[in-house]
């Protein structure tokens, strides 16, 4: 099983760029890297997914080095509403859904 | 689309009672997942379906738990009999074969007293 390791918590300030790094040393060839955001009393919400290099959407960027043993979620110009828990997951898209494990996540706190 | 709809939002029941949680996935999604979240264990995958067929139920804690998906628009997770240690937030999620990940419902907070 591809295990992920991320910081337990991070703090930042409004307007700053926040980078959350996840390590996944035993990622498999067909594994994708996916990030989710979870607010209290809500289900996780898909943020971004990638396989290699860089992926960008309207809310975040995902940087994946060539060896794919880590990935970095980048949140530009965070606001108070970005305070949440962020999960990094690795796994095949659907062939092994039971092996896609949510780790402990990173609790991000944004201050004014 | 209204997203993944779960009911009830909150459920309080007495130990030994039967509990049924309900989920309506997003139309067109052919995968449905049931997760459980607790402070101690985080998010755990219980079971998932593809085209209404259970594919992997290895995460179901024990025989007291059962899940069904009689059609593409409805699934249930049943606990019988319920125990206090089943207290958790239960999430349903659905997806299709795209790179958009899973869409989760708002969850059912179950408290067994």
Structure description:
The complex is a heterodimer of chains A (112) and B (113). With 112 residues, chain A is mainly β. Helices cover 0% and strands 46% of the residues of chain A. Chain A has no helices and nine strands. In chain A, strands 1-9-8-3-4 form a five-stranded mixed sheet, with no helix packed on it. A four-stranded antiparallel sheet of chain A has the order 2-7-6-5, with no helix packed on it. In chain A, a hairpin with a 5-residue loop joins strand 6 and strand 7. Chain A is globular. The N and C termini of chain A lie far apart (39 Å). Chain B is mainly beta. In chain B, strands 2, 4, 5, 6, 9, 10 and 11 form a seven-stranded mixed sheet that branches. In chain B, a hairpin with a 3-residue loop joins strand 4 (31-38) and strand 5. The A-B interface holds A 32, 34, 36, 41-46, 49, 87, 93-94, 97-98, 100-105 and B 4, 31, 33, 35, 42-45, 48, 50, 55-56, 58-59, 91, 93, 95, 97, 99-107.
What is the overall shape of chain B? Answer: globular
Structural class of chain B: mainly beta
Order of helices and strands of chain B: EEEEEEEEEEE
Poorly predicted ranges of chain A: none
Classify the beta-strand content of chain A into a percent band.
over 45%
List keywords for this structure.
heterodimer; A: 0% helix; B: 113 residues; mainly beta; 7-stranded mixed beta sheet; 11 strands
Set out the fold topology.
The complex is a heterodimer of chains A (112) and B (113).
Chain A: E1 9-13, E2 18-23, E3 32-38, E4 45-50, E5 53-56, E6 61-64, E7 70-75, E8 84-91, E9 106-111
Parallel strand pairs in A: 1-9
Antiparallel strand pairs in A: 2-7, 3-4, 3-8, 5-6, 6-7, 8-9
Chain B: E1 5-7, E2 10-13, E3 19-24, E4 31-38, E5 42-50, E6 53-56, E7 65-71, E8 74-79, E9 88-95, E10 103-104, E11 108-112
Parallel strand pairs in B: 2-11
Antiparallel strand pairs in B: 1-3, 3-8, 4-5, 4-9, 5-6, 7-8, 9-10, 9-11
């Amino acid at each position: 099983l591809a295990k992920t390791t991320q910081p337990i918590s991070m703090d930042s300030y409004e307007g700053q760029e926040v980078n959350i790094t996840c390590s996944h040393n035993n990622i498999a060839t067909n594994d994708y890297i996916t990030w989710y955001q979870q607010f209290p009393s809500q289900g996780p919400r898909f943020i971004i997914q990638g396989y290699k290099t860089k992926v960008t959407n309207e809310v975040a960027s995902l940087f994946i080095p060539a060896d794919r043993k880590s990935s970095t979620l980048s949140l530009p110009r965070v606001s108070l509403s970005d305070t949440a828990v962020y999960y990094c997951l690795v796994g095949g898209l659907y062939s092994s859904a039971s092996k896609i494990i949510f780790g402990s996540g990173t609790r991000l706190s944004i201050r004014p | 689309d209204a997203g993944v709809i779960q009911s009830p939002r909150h459920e309080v029941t007495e130990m030994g009672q039967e509990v049924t949680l309900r989920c309506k996935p997003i139309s067109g999604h052919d995968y449905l997942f049931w997760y459980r979240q607790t402070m101690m264990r985080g998010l755990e995958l219980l079971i998932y379906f593809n085209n209404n067929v259970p594919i992997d139920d290895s995460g179901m804690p024990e025989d007291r738990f059962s899940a069904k998906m009689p059609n593409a628009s409805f699934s249930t997770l049943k606990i019988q009999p319920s125990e206090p240690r089943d207290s958790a937030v239960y999430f349903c999620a659905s997806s299709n074969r795209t790179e958009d990940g899973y869409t989760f419902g708002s969850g059912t907070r179950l408290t067994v007293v």
